[in-house]
Structure formats: structure tokens, C-alpha cells
DNA sequence: ATATATTTTTAGATTAATCTAAAAATATAT
DNA sequence: ATATATTTTTAGATTAATCTAAAAATATAT
């Protein structure tokens, strides 16, 4: 049996290891899990003993295939529940994370396959992140950060990097949602802020915001 | 903060104390929780310290008002989730218990109030048990056990005492569901079995079955 | 290349929940 | 009313997850 805590560590290692091929460091896990490095060392040994992680002292950690499967299944559950909360229970996209963090640990294959069908097999969650299918396949789309666009790019918003409530509320306030179309009209060299046009209305966006919004250039 | 284990003990004490006014015994809790009496003693002290239970050594335990509120809220969540599983995710009534046991611990007021609305404020769960409203009020209907009926009673099935999979599957097999109308036509003194008529078809029912099916006499 | 800083691990303690075995209290039988 | 049986509690140990403080290993700076 896998404990709740083990699941959370596996998930953290998965998210930290997603980019780059490097091993995940003890400290980065400790930060992500809001715990101490010594606790991470203990747990990482345990995950290694159980076959979920590859670990060599002082060398950091990666997930085994089995560990990766578990992580992807948790991500799948998390994102399906987020869709449920937004589509069926009228949650807004900045309210779903905490609840999904709890729901993602419910153990029942039938529950998830039925939920998936009930939601009509969604491919992306409310933040634009892809939902792994039941075999673990993740359908990545070629999105880039708004900060990486060039002047004149015609874009459509497809996701957010950060899904904190503050950021999402900022987007709501400025009428930016997934699917919103925009054109990049100016970049200010001094602070890297970007001017975008949405339906011919101009909006100035800080570099920090642009670094957290994914778009697809058409 | 209240832990998962504490919630489960509170729920067990609530269910055991529901009938009769007696204090709930250490042993009965141990049986219900599938644990040892010594573990129960420890936990019951803790619940008492936290103000959820009244406990005097060797005298058994009752819930405080606060404990009762917590218990009723768990029951509410459990039953709402059961309705969700059956109505929306096509679970059958014998499959919902284990999953609802997990879902009942999810903490989010908004989740439950929205779920309640999404299900259109159901009053009973798939086993006929009443769903407490958000203030904790439980709408009891005057049901009796089929074993308590007398010959000639015209009844409608309104609930089950036992919601084990085996029992529910027996009912399915014999086309007995909540809402099914039946007439009590004979009682066999030797084994207390009962003959009932459903749509003029006769069916002989053991005393054990009759002891687990609630009906309303019309 | 070595000193210094940073990261990681180890050792030993703590808390929550559990257990076994024995002791204490209560209930039951005659 | 007392012996016996049953129930409950206590004492002390165990496991999972965590912590602090110190030691060990690795990385960085000059």
C-alpha cells in the first residue's frame, strides 16, 4: 500500500523533474513539500526501497517507471476533478486547486473512469493543462510563454504557468481567459513589459505576468 | 485540526449511539473500528480532551454537541456523495459505500453546498437513509422493519438496515428496490419467514432478510 | 588547490496511532 | 456475598512521519 504522504512526495518529484533531465535535489523537494531536508532524505529512501524512485546518496532522485505511473495517475485525477468542479459545481478556476489536492487521493478506478465519461473525456483542465488519459498518455500542445512572443504575433491564450488565486483573479479582472485572442503590439526594453491588443483594446502587461501566461501563436 | 482517524472514531461513536441513550462501550467501538480496546481507550481520552466526547473511565462515551455536529456533517457528506455516485456516475447501490467512505472526509464547505445544489437537494441516499441538511437537521420518516409488519399490511420499501453488497445484490436479483410496493401475505411461525406479494407474484423471504428491509405501511 | 559555503545525511528525539500483556474495575452467577 | 468472568485501562513497545543539531559530502570562490 502507498500512503498519502508517499503519494504527495511522488507527485512533488514528478513536477520538479518534469523539465530537464537532472535528478531532483533533496532541498527542492523539501521546499515544494514545505518540510525539512532531513525528512526528505528519509522518505526518499523509503520510496527507493519500495521501487518508486531511484536514489543514490547526495545524487538526488528520479522516479522509476512505476513511480512515474503513480504520479501521472494522480495528475490525471487532480485535473479531472478540477474540470468537474468548474463545469459542474460552478467553481471558478482560482478556487479549484485546494479541493482537487484532496480529491486526487481518492482510490477507485471506477470512480475516475466514470467521472471521465461524465465530463465527456476532457483533454485539458481549467488552467489549460493536459489531462493524461487512462494509459498515462499526455497530449502536449506547442504552447509558448507570452514573454517569448515577438511583436506582431497573433496569439490565443491556452494556459497558465502559475495557478495561484492572485494571478487568476488578475486575468479575470482583465478579461483574459483561455481561448482569448490577442495581438502583441509593443515590448518595452526597460522592464520587458508587453503591450497587447484584445479586440482592439490595448493592455500593458508586466514581464511577470507575461512569464506566466501560455499562448499558441497562429 | 481534526485528524482523519478522529473523524472515523466520532462517526463510529455516532452510529453506535444513535439508538438508545446508553453510553457507547469501548469494546463496541473497537469492534466497529476493527481495532483493539486499548487503542479505543487512548483515542477516546483524546476526543474528550478536544471537547468532542464525554468520557469517564469504565463508563463508556457519548458525543458532545460539537462531536455530534461533526458526525452529522460526515454523514451528510457521505450520503450526498452516494447520491452523486449513483445518479451521476452510474454506480449501483451496492458499490458506493467504500468510495463514499473516502469522499466523506474531503474538507470544503463550498464543495458540499454546490454538490447538494447540483444533485437538486436530495433528501435520501440510495439506501433510503435521510441526508442531514446543512444545519444538521435529519428528516426521519416513520419506517418499520419488514419483520415487524403484520399479515395484510400493504407496504412500500423505503430503506435497508444493512447495506452490504451481498444483501443489496439479493434485493436486485429479486427485483426489490426502494419504492417497490408489496403486500405481506403469510408468516411462517417455525422460522419467522414471510411471504410477500409483489405485483401478484409471491416471494418467500427469510427472517434475516425481513430484519434488514425497511418499509412504510400504507 | 585549498578554504569556505552549501547541501545532504545521520543520530537521536517527538507525535499520532497502534499493538500486546498484565493489571484493575465492573458485571454476572450461584 | 463472594468467586468468576468480562470489560476496560495501564504500561511499555512499535511504526510512520516529522523535527533539530551535528557530521559528512559536495560545490564554489579565489
Roughly how much helix do the residues of chain A carry, as a percent range? 40-55%
Largest interface, with counts of residues having CB < 8 Å to the other chain, equals: A-B, 18 and 18 residues
Shape of chain A: globular
Query: Count of DSSP E strands of chain A?
Result: 8
CATH class of the domain at 144-217 in chain A: Mainly Beta
CATH level-four homologous superfamily name of the domain at 144-217 in chain A: Ferrous iron transport protein A (FeoA)
Cα-based radius of gyration of chain A, to the nearest Å: 19 Å
Number of helices of chain A: 8
CATH topology of the domain at 144-217 in chain A: SH3 type barrels
> What's the average pLDDT of chain A?
96
Task: Indicate the topology.
The structure is a homodimer of 218-residue chains.
Chain A: H1 4-17, H2 26-33, H3 37-49, E1 53-55, E2 61-63, H4 65-87, H5 96-103, H6 109-118, E3 144-145, E4 154-160, H7 165-173, E5 181-188, E6 193-198, E7 201-205, H8 207-210, E8 213-217
Antiparallel strand pairs in A: 1-2, 3-8, 4-5, 4-8, 5-6, 6-7
The first copy, chain A, binds a DNA duplex (30 and 30 nucleotides) through helix 3.
